[in-house]
Amino acid sequence: MKINSLCIALLLIMPNLANAQESPKKLIILHTNDLHSRLNGYSPETDYSPETFNDDNTIGGFARIATLIEAEKSKNGDQVLVVDAGDFLMGTLFHAMEQTTGFQLPLMKKMGYDVVCLGNHEFDFGPGTLAAIIQKSMDNGTVPLLTLSNITFSEKDTADDRLEALVDNGIVKPYQVIEKNGLKIGIFGLLGYVAINDAPLARPIVFADPIKTAKKIATLLREKEKADLVICLSHSGLGKDDVGNWTGEDVTLAQKVPGIDVIISGHTHTLIDKPLVVNGVPIVQTGAYGAGLGRLELEIGNRKVLRTEAQVVPITDAVAANLFFQQAIDSQEKRINNEILEPLGFQYGSVIAETAFPLSCNEGKEAEMSNLGPLITDALYAYVKHLSPEGTDITLFPTGMVRDNIVPGATGKQTVADLFRVVSLGSGNDAIPGYPLARVYVTGKELKGIMEVLYLAPSSSPSNYMYFGGLDATYNLDKGLLRKITSIRTADAAGHFVPVDWSKENPKLYSLTANTYILEFIGVIKKLSKGLVKVTLKDANGNPIHSINEALIDADPSAEGVQEIKEWMALLWYLQQQPDKTGNGIPDVPDAYRIGSPRLHP
Predict the structure, then answer these.
(1) Per-domain residue ranges for the chain?
(2) Tens digits of residue pLDDT in 441-488
(3) CATH 3.40.630.30 is held by the domain 350-592
(4) Alpha-carbon span 51 to 321, nearest angstrom
(5) SS3 per residue for 364-397
(6) For residues 190 and 564, what is the distance between their CA atoms, to the nearest angstrom?
(7) How far apart are CA 300 and CA 304, in angstroms?
(8) For an engineered disulfide with 227, which of 4, 109, 186, 578 has Cβ 3.0 to 4.6 Å away?
(9) The whole model's pTM is what?
(10) Could you tell me the fold of the domain covering 2-325?
(11) Residue among 243, 284, 286 at smallest CA distance from 35
């Protein structure tokens, strides 16, 4: 009896001994973030040669990414997990077709993506359109699992009902649980504080506190779902401070939220070559636009990460494109031509201009020295004056809305697709992509107040730095709050700069032209300045306007409705007006833009 009892006891504890001695398991996470619909290699697209490799300097391209994913899965099979940390949409002409074709998400699924997080730019068309894009994508094929944990819907407003229905039906989930290599993996998406502020068009949706939500979801995945590994697809981001230390929301997330094993970061377009380990949690991010594919290899045992190895693989012409995917992308490009560009007189690959030097815009301390920001505002200024008898006194465009640089490449040639990428955000009330331009009027005193607030805005976010057309202003850092702007001049009919009288007694109105998103921002200057600066946006007669839609500029008042003016069309038109210096029939970017020319200076 004693022997039998001993045998039974041994049999009972053997499974536990086996589990305790179980060999660690490997997981390879391939990850991207902030793809922004960069389906083709860039800059410029003219140089992109997906059929061959090692013969151009372009970067990115979904067909190249597909090649690397396929190779990794062929080698390591079920050990491979492929994820994206948000902002997969919005940034090229391809995103403009998503509501009607639902092309990109099924393509990403075929490429091998398992889970995708929703970022702030997925909400740029509003929750209803995002729901339509997801639904159309599902009609067009299988899509990756979608996640966002801190989304909250309105009980009263129906504008978010279609997206809410997708959440209720489990199409978009707070978290996803999948198995890879015998590991139970919990994955949840998160929108950070800054990203939430960058998604005003998500209304009436609001977003719950990211840290509190992350604590709740991580605990649920650990305790209820019994996940071996918890991954946060955090569309929040991080960066370095002035002394080179890592800081930002994802650093705080790792410090404050127990239970997260890995943070796949996004939103800040930060390239982290090697994982940043904070509180034992590796944080990785690939930069943006598909310029690199992250590869994070983990060794996991007893629900703990035992070993971490990471790199970002550059997506260059050294990677041969998967032609199956490139052919699908080329077919979609033809639809863009047929349905969007040809009615406007353009072709996707038509060369508009050429440049012998790069034009760039870098957020932060170098923003004021950009040579691309002034080019954009000059283009808006000239185009509005060309199309509208009223013209405009001032045009505005912020750093954060410059979405790509202009790179000469091998030939200097810039196509419609290349230039669209520069100012690609938003939509209006028609089927043409891009934010429409609107014109509002303010007094000189209000203009001074706006300038003071805009001058202070970059201190809160580098993306708020504003470029101006038709304006020249000076500032003095030694002056007090709301007293730093020392002079403002605008151009008269002859093109000469004349001073703005900002005294309270001056009734003269000055016109401001910008896209509708920016003018909404101008409209809440009072709130931004804590009530110190009051601005009432007006029409040409001085009557207050109640909606920015009332101020839309109509390119053809004789036609029915409003013929909206888009920023990218202004940029194309302006460059087409430039002289052909080389005699090859292609306009050249003027040498005047070789260096930046700040319109706000000491």
Answers:
(1) 2-325, 350-592
(2) 999 999 999 998 877 666 566 677 889 999 999 999 899 888 999 999
(3) no
(4) 7
(5) CCCHHHCCHHHHHHHHHHHHHHHHCCCCCCEEEE
(6) 35
(7) 6
(8) 186
(9) 0.91
(10) Purple Acid Phosphatase; chain A, domain 2 (3.60.21)
(11) 286
